[in-house]
Amino acid sequence: MIAAFSRPYDAAIAMIERAGDGWLLGLGARLAFVAVVFGYYWSSAMTKIGDGPLGLLFPSDGAYVQILPAQMEAAGYDSTGLGFLPWGLIVLAGLWAELLLPVLIALGLMTRLAALGMIGFIAVQSYVDVAFHGADAATLGALFDRIPGSVILDQRALWVFVLLVLAVKGAGALSLDAALAWRAR
């Protein structure tokens, strides 16, 4: 009796898997990332760019406050009081990562590496939110707590899952990664 239902079901699932093989998961994960996460990081990166044409090389004071709140407080909120090594380099790397990694993922270029970089970025960002920005228990939330609106654990767990799909499966056939691989052949 069960076999009578499982054979058509298995055949239908196999057909769906074949139809989406190589393109569906990568494209779907990238679209989900762009729809849910890209704007958040793009907006945040824009607040970190310094003034003028060299703003990408000289982050704003706001970038230092967001990334290094304790160090900025100790320096009297004057980023020139912090040396380039290591503090300036950390802020510059944070700015570039927040700006470039989401763009690479959206384009499907170096997707696996960019996804792993974003996972690391999210882990560091979450740590900074808790350790230095004082995210409270309500903001942090708890996994499996039936309250889906906590900013840190619930949202970022979903973000990381989408990025894990990209890190494991890649960007898929509809990506710059695939186009470059095809051209190389």
Helix content: over 70%
Number of strands: 0
Please identify the structural class as seen in this structure: mainly alpha
| Domains (count) | 1
Termini distance? 49 Å
Note the total helix count. Answer: 9
Residues in β-strands, percent: under 5%
Order of helices and strands: HHHHHHHHH
**Main beta sheet:** none
Pick out the low-confidence regions.
Answer: none
What features would you describe in this structure?
- This protein is mostly helical and 185 residues long.
- It has one domain (26-184).
- The protein contains nine helices and no strands.
- It has helices at residues 2-20, 24-46, 61-67, 69-74, 84-107, 111-131, 137-140, 151-169, 176-184.
- The protein starts with a helix and ends with a helix.
- The relative contact order is 0.14.
Provide a compact summary of the structure.
This protein has 185 residues and is an all-alpha fold. The chain has one domain.
List keywords for this structure.
mainly alpha, 185 residues, 0% strand, single chain, flat
What does the secondary structure layout of this molecule look like, with pairings?
Layout: H1 2-20, H2 24-46, H3 61-67, H4 69-74, H5 84-107, H6 111-131, H7 137-140, H8 151-169, H9 176-184
Helix pairs in contact: 2-5, 2-8, 5-6, 6-8
